[in-house]
Amino acid sequence: MSGLADVIATWLDGRTTTQMELWGLGIVWWGRIGKGLLFAGGLAVVIDLLDAGKLRAHGLLTKQRAKAAWDHAQNRSKESAIARLERTVWDDLVGSKILSGGMPHTAASIVILSYLYSEPPRRAPHGLDCSLQTYQDFHSSVTTALPNAHCHNAQDMDRLHPPKTRYMCVDQVAFVRARIEAFLAEQVPAEHHGLLGKSAKWLKIKALWWFLRGGAERLAGWALYRQRPLHMLRWAAFVFVVVGGLLDMLAS
Q1: Using one digit for the tens of pLDDT, what is the confidence trace for 122-160?
Q2: Distance of alpha carbon 150 from alpha carbon 136, whole angstroms
């Protein structure tokens, strides 16, 4: 493997460098990279063929779109926080157990059983605008009402609730979710009530998308809304031409 000094010395001696390597890559490939950089640098002339006034106008529009995208991202982030708050309240009140092998009256091989914690929460979640006592009273009210939260008939009671078990049936799970949503509806602004019951992960992905989009449009707006739009690309083209030319020369 040859170093840069060896390649330059060989080239200055008038000998061919085509059989040499530079940093683990054949010199022929470095020559091809140099030609590619020369071509990319030559494309900078296209910038001067474009109307500068139109580029600046498009840059201003792009900056405005970037601001709107950032506003969207911040709103989606707030919405994600509300959805996460609902999940936190659920985890404070409800536990679960994965039962492999299924149950006698189900065809599924894996069943997730849910149950209500008997102990009241020890602290209110961050972001919840209520006292710990209010939060514990909510848990107590749900616990008291849970035994009667059924839609199925009496014949199914023993099948769905085997004796001496604390697991909830489907009706009770739906009841707890509805009570949590009703409780949080009193804690969050009215315009965010529609977010209750939605996936926090999906809202977080949407927030990330808007942040990335806003960042890209902000960068594009900065590059275009200038006295000489895309002027930094001219400097990049200059570097491409210099570096590409030197690499092409060394490979000759």
Answers
A1: 888 887 778 888 888 888 888 888 877 766 554 554 555
A2: 23
